[in-house]
């Protein structure tokens, strides 16, 4: 890239580990300008509390890169925040940091956004309907359909390289009882088209191979344990295969995540949240990431929560945030190569 990209990093729930994780970004040299979005005093005080020595300066569009220094786009807290102590009065502040990042990305001021974790419960306690970053980003970029994908390295030892596991979701934050009715032909087709396009355009797979999970145990076992595979999933896969998509499935989810099966594909499409993410987080937690596919902007995130019990202790692990930053930069490089 001709000049370092500017990456916005939202600092997340102020009572959680997000603010201190953001400060830890200064401990590594990045081929980018990093702009933290949050309360400047909070970021400085949390860094001091956890023993981080870093330089912070106000964000300006034309700032030069200064090694070891992070820029801050200041968004003021509504009320002072203590580590580990949630306060609904700061719920709107959390969303204001997201709005600033979305606006900057949409205008081209930021090349991508990376998000630290938020606490959905306290936002809802404040009377603000909020089901997650993914849905919020879709609404505020006027994107009719987005796809949540988590990814991370797993395995690898004694000189054997680790492999990447990528798991996208057909449905996200729904009660399990609502999933079957939500898995419609239209939803599956839209999801697979978005997943296929972004694996190609943002991750560099010329012909993406997608492993598709069934909905029911044993992928329905020929209709004896449910007919969604026969009536809904298989017809969609057959139609898209005719267009040239490499789709494998529907596969039983209980054996899909073994290494020899994963080696057959570049990503997995799971039908619901825990079907895909329980295995992925077991295999990659602490170094995994969350990517929102289908957006007009690049957004990556950590794959963990706010860890209120660790906030302010200095023991939070920045591995997932670092991986999210690496992924955003890689996606930018792939996009530039395709442009």
TrEMBL record:
InterPro entries from the UniProt entry: PdxA, PdxA_fam
Listed pathway(s): Cofactor biosynthesis; pyridoxine 5'-phosphate biosynthesis; pyridoxine 5'-phosphate from D-erythrose 4-phosphate: step 4/5
Residues noted as binding a divalent metal cation in the record, renumbered to the chain: 173, 218, 273
EC number: 1.1.1.262
Subcellular location: Cytoplasm
Co-factor binding comment: Binds 1 divalent metal cation per subunit. Can use ions such as Zn(2+), Mg(2+) or Co(2+).
Membrane-crossing segments per the record: none
Binding-site positions, substrate: 133-134, 281, 290, 299
Top-level EC class: oxidoreductase
GO molecular function, one term: 4-hydroxythreonine-4-phosphate dehydrogenase activity
Domain of life: Bacteria
Function recorded in the entry: Catalyzes the NAD(P)-dependent oxidation of 4-(phosphooxy)-L-threonine (HTP) into 2-amino-3-oxo-4-(phosphooxy)butyric acid which spontaneously decarboxylates to form 3-amino-2-oxopropyl phosphate (AHAP).
Subunit structure: Homodimer.
Note: The active site is located at the dimer interface.
Descriptive protein name: 4-hydroxythreonine-4-phosphate dehydrogenase
Species of origin: Uliginosibacterium silvisoli
Gene designation: pdxA
């Amino acid at each position: 890239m001709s000049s370092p990209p500017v990456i916005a990093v939202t600092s997340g729930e102020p009572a959680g580990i997000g603010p201190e994780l953001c400060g830890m970004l200064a401990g590594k040299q990045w081929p980018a300008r990093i702009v933290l979005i949050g309360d400047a005093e909070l970021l400085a005080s949390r860094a001091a509390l956890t023993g981080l020595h870093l330089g912070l300066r106000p964000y300006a569009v034309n700032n030069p890169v200064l090694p070891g220094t992070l820029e801050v786009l200041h968004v003021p807290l509504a009320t002072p925040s203590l580590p580990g102590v949630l306060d609904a009065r700061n719920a709107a502040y959390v969303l204001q940091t997201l709005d600033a990042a979305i606006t900057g990305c949409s205008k081209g001021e930021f090349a991508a956004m990376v998000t630290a974790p938020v606490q959905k419960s306290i936002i809802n306690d404040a009377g603000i309907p909020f089901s997650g970053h993914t849905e919020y980003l879709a609404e505020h970029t006027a994107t009719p359909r987005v796809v949540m994908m988590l990814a991370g390295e797993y395995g690898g030892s004694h000189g054997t390289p680790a492999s990447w596991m990528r798991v996208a979701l057909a449905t996200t934050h729904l009660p399990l009882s609502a999933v079957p009715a939500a898995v419609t032909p239209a939803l599956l087709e839209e999801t697979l088209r978005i997943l296929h396009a972004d694996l190609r355009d943002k991750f560099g797979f010329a012909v993406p191979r997608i492993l598709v999970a069934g909905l029911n145990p044993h992928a329905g076992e020929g209709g004896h344990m449910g007919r969604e595979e026969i009536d809904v999933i298989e017809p969609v896969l057959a139609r898209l295969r005719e267009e040239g998509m490499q789709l494998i499935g529907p596969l039983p989810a209980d054996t899909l995540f073994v290494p020899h099966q994963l080696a057959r594909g570049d990503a997995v499409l799971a039908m619901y949240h825990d079907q895909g993410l329980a295995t992925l987080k077991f295999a990659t937690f602490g170094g995994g990431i969350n990517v929102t596919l289908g957006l007009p902007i690049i957004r990556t995130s950590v794959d963990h929560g706010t860890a209120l019990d660790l906030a302010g202790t200095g023991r939070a692990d920045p591995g997932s945030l670092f991986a999210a930053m690496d992924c955003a930069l890689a996606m930018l490089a792939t996009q530039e190569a395709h442009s």
